[in-house]
Design brief:
Largest sheet: 8 strands, parallel, barrel
Helix content: 25-40%
Strand order of the largest sheet: 3-6-7-8-9-10-11-12
CATH class: Alpha Beta
Number of strands: 12
Order of helices and strands: EEEEEHEHEHEHEHEHEHHEHH
Amino acid sequence: MEYRTLGKTGLYVSAVGIGGWPLGGLVGGPVGDPRKPVVDEGWAGSDDDESIRMIRKAEDIGVNLIDTAEIYGDGHSESIIGIATKGRREKFVISTKVRGFYTDEPDIAHTKKRVRDACEGSLRRLQSDYIDIYLLHKLPHAGAVPTVMEELGKLKEEGKIRWSGLSYSAASKREEIERIQEAGEVAAMVIGYSIVERNAEQVIRWCGENDIGTMIASPLASGVLAGQWFDNPPKFDEADKRATSFSDRQRTEAAFKKFGELRFLTSEGDRTMAQAAIKFILDTEGVTSVIAGSLRAEELEDNAAAAEVPAITGGDRERAMEIADEAQRIWKG
């Protein structure tokens, strides 16, 4: 496994990590608590025992970075990670997120309580005394930003978090990042990026130039670039976050036929489709690590091997982007 330094944090992380959204499943809540369906934010196909096996396999193959969030399965993802890493916590770098600043006007007392309660809830579910990287999943009202960043600073002083930062759903523009930086620490970011969705490329490069570690989410575009659906795109449960994107069958099937042309990246037999998609990102300027969602240990092993496969050359990168762009136009209309 290749390891990289996560920006100014100095944390040494595997080039390929685990994206924890799929671990939340379709029925949420921490392990041992009453379960309830996850609305619009679920992920089909997870199995708790297999998720735990996968995370324990990660240690064996050198994968040490796991990203999650309190919202993934209403805490279920964090809970599974806590079970899997208990007794071996120091072997992993864990990133999680706080979400939920909904008031139109800043409420200082509520905001402080929300940040602290969320952090302590994540610590309980993760069965840990500390969180390596604590991210804002949703931006607070502009007037509340100083309060949020001050509370994050206190949590860091108390040793409950080691570093703080932002998630791509919180800040997709440089101006947003800089506004948060004025009030506090932005040491690392989770940013969505793939062959299919490349809007964040300039932000990623800027992060690299400013010593902000980057963890790249959705590298397989929610499973699209894994390759197994090119000939037969799936239908999803309505609670699955991917259901809406796949709802127009005619467009979806036409788009996936075009996506299938990306198989040329595997023609030499030295990369799987998923590995090609991840390698494309790893070779992008400013990228520290790719956090790919995995449901099984075998998927994780395949993803992790992407760090070692041959680079995708300039001509092949351009061709891949052209195919992906055309497929997106067909799919989204």
